[in-house]
Structure formats: structure tokens, C-alpha cells
């Protein structure tokens, strides 16, 4: 299925916002904390390319890699398989070469040292020596709604991810909340300065 491009000005505003601030404004789309940054010190804003893998099929992953364009985030739903790793050194290198922004796996990955050298942001539940196989079973599906860490990712959704976690949201929702989030971020240094100066919490945070 085709997906619409995300407006560049929205992408720029999202790159400027602190993602946890969005947690003050939204409730849905947050991936559970078991999926974390395996390559640290990263911040990702990208567009979801989704893949539902069945039968631990590596061919399906390679087909998804061939579809990536710059700024895409490959989101892989392993269907509850947290044993077979669909991503490793070659996979990450291919994604990085295509200009991908990141890979998110509801499952495990492998070749962690090589992934760190590639420096492509990778988010997963952990690592494994057991990998997917070149089966070509044909039952996996590309660019359909998938479930990743309890949240639904749809093709073309925004993927926001950093060392705190991962979230998915549509462009309309992002446009609705991003300016409020940026305003909150801009107000935070003054709030911190007041607390550090010894001003009472009741006055700073409760307004009393």
C-alpha cells in the first residue's frame, strides 16, 4: 500500500521536541518498556515501514529492506517469536545503506557489537544467537498494520524513539500536540531554575 509523505516542517518540529513531553499529552501509541535502544544515545524521527514476520522467515526481512527509502523506520512484528533474531550485521548495514532512520523489532536481534559499529539505531527486547532462516515461505506481510510492544504501527505512521522508549503516532495527532509540547519544553528550564533556587514545590508545581 502507498503511504503519504510526512510534511518536512512537522518532522523538524518533532526532532526539536523532547519525546517524554509527549507522554504528558498522549496516552496511546507507546511501546512497552521491554523494547529498548540497543545502540544508545539516539533520537529517531521517521516513517514506519511495517513487516509482520511468520515462520522466522529471513527472506521476508530482505524483501522489506529492499523497499526502504531514506528516513524510513523498519518496524518488525515477530508475532510473539522472541527467540529468532531477524536483524543482525548485514540487515542493519543494508538498512543504513538505504538511508533508514532505525529498526524496531518486537523480538530479539543479533550481532550486537556489529550493530553498535553500524550506529543505526536499533530497538529490540534483547539479543540471541538463534536467527531467522532463508525460507521464502511467503506468509509474511509487508506494510500492513502490525502490533509492536503492545502498540499498533500502521504503514506511514511516525516513529519517535530515543533511549527512553518508542512510540507510534499518525501525522494528524503529531501536528495537534507538537506545538504544546514544544512550549512545555521551553518553559521547563525556568521551572528547574526555580526549584534549584529553593522555591517551594507547592508554589512552583502546584501554583499555591
TrEMBL record:
Protein name, entry field: Putative 4-hydroxy-4-methyl-2-oxoglutarate aldolase
Cofactor needs: Mg(2+); a divalent metal cation
Keywords: Magnesium, Metal-binding, Plasmid
Record PANTHER family: 4-HYDROXY-4-METHYL-2-OXOGLUTARATE ALDOLASE 3-RELATED
Keyword flag rRNA processing: no
InterPro entries referenced in this protein's UniProt entry, alphabetically: RraA/RraA-like (IPR005493), RraA/RraA-like_sf (IPR036704)
GO MF terms held by the record: metal ion binding
Residues that hold Mg(2+) according to the record: 111
Taxonomic path: Bacteria, Pseudomonadati, Pseudomonadota, Betaproteobacteria, Burkholderiales
Magnesium listed as a keyword: yes
Amino acid at each position: 500500500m502507498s503511504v503519504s509523505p510526512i510534511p518536512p516542517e512537522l518532522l523538524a518540529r518533532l526532532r526539536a521536541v523532547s519525546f517524554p513531553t509527549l507522554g504528558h499529552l498522549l496516552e496511546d501509541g507507546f511501546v512497552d518498556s521491554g523494547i529498548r535502544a540497543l545502540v544508545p544515545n539516539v533520537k529517531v524521527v521517521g516513517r514506519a515501514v511495517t513487516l509482520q514476520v511468520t515462520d522466522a522467515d529471513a527472506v521476508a526481512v530482505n524483501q522489506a529492506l529492499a523497499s526502504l527509502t531514506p528516513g524510513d523506520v523498519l518496524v518488525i512484528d515477530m508475532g510473539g517469536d522472541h527467540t529468532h533474531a531477524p536483524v543482525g550485521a548485514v540487515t542493519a548495514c543494508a538498512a543504513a545503506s538505504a538511508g533508514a532512520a532505525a529498526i524496531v523489532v518486537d523480538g530479539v536481534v543479533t550481532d550486537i557489537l556489529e550493530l553498535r559499529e553500524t550506529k543505526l539505531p536499533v530497538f529490540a527486547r534483547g539479543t540471541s544467537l538463534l536467527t531467522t532462516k532463508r525460507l521464502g515461505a511467503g506468509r509474511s506481510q509487508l506494510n500492513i498494520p502490525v502490533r509492536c510492544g503492545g502498540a499498533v504501527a500502521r504503514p506511514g505512521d511516525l516513529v519517535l524513539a530515543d533511549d527512553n522508549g518508542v512510540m507510534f503516532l499518525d501525522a494528524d495527532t503529531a501536528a495537534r500536540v507538537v506545538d504544546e509540547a514544544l512550549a512545555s519544553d521551553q518553559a521547563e528550564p525556568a521551572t528547574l531554575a526555580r526549584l534549584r533556587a529553593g522555591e517551594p514545590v507547592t508554589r512552583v508545581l502546584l501554583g499555591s
